[in-house]
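pasting for ref
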Amino acid sequence: MPRRLSDCHNVEDMRDLARRRLPGPIFHYIDGAADDEVTYRRNSEAYEAVDLVPNILGGVAEIDMSVKLMGAKLDMPLFCSPTALQRLFHHEGERAVARAAEKFGTLFGVSSLGTVSLAEIGTLISTPKMFQFYFHKDRELNTAMLDMAKAANFEILTLTVDTITGGNRERDLRTGFTTPPRLTPSSIWQFASKPSWALNYFLRSKFELSQLKDHVGEGSNIAISVGDYFSTMLDQNMNWDDAADLRAAWGGTFCLKGVMSAADARRAVNMGADAIMISNHGGRQLDGGRSPFDQLEEILAEVGGEIEVICDGGIRRGTHILKAMALGATACSGGRLYLYALAAAGQAGGERTLSNLKSEIERDMKLMGVSSLSQLTPDMVRRRQV
């Protein structure tokens, strides 16, 4: 198990170092998923069921791994998907990941349950920015968050559609994880066992959900599990009309996150969405659902060329990204892959993970015999026969 950042050569190494650095409940919040975690495991395993077929003699001294996504040029085909509660994992939170994303010329996403304000992130970085919108029962809160994103000059609004109720995250039930952390005899011992984390959490600026704190106490001043927050605070009556109204109120680039069926992808096209993220929330919601990579071909067969399609989640290697791009994805995104790095070493951890993956992509493109991602085609992958 790695003890230093210099020992971390891949996402799994970062995961091991994050486990060393974080109290148990915090680590298991990042690492855990719903029910038996079958879908969580499948999200990565799905990539391993597909083999790459390289070409040769392509002249690959110069590599271009850039992509165009939702009106922006990204220097690599992977971006940092929005995730919640980042200052629980490292005191710099979203600031650290945003700076790392900017350094590597890729997009950075901020969650409604983010711990640094949209206004601050808007002035901190120049890289493209996405705001992940959770549709609350409180319509005034919804309007306020929309206004915050506009004022902070975020380019993309992404409505998350797979959190209509909280998933059954049993690791959190076992550890008693809440936001903010609830102090109990058991949790105090867990926090005390990681003194560096505890000192940063308790002595630095107060933990809060920056986009929500002026409207709801839950999550900032009132301890609550993320599952309970979804189940009690979000609008379970949200429907396609609400999504269309939100898109109209935003008036800019609009994405739906959590699309998993070809039928819903078609409805996203019909409502005028610019992009969809094929995502199952990292396996944290519906266990037993398909992996995004497994659904990619079916969705592209329905809407490919009509809307930008992002394959979100499960990515651990550069080859995973190349497999998705070969099938026709516009880009890929991930959350845990940089959350482990954030927990392990803050901004330096995020930069190392993005650097590792960028190096893998470049090396693997050369080994595939392509100098640009557009040269990857579906006939360069094969599903392994069972």
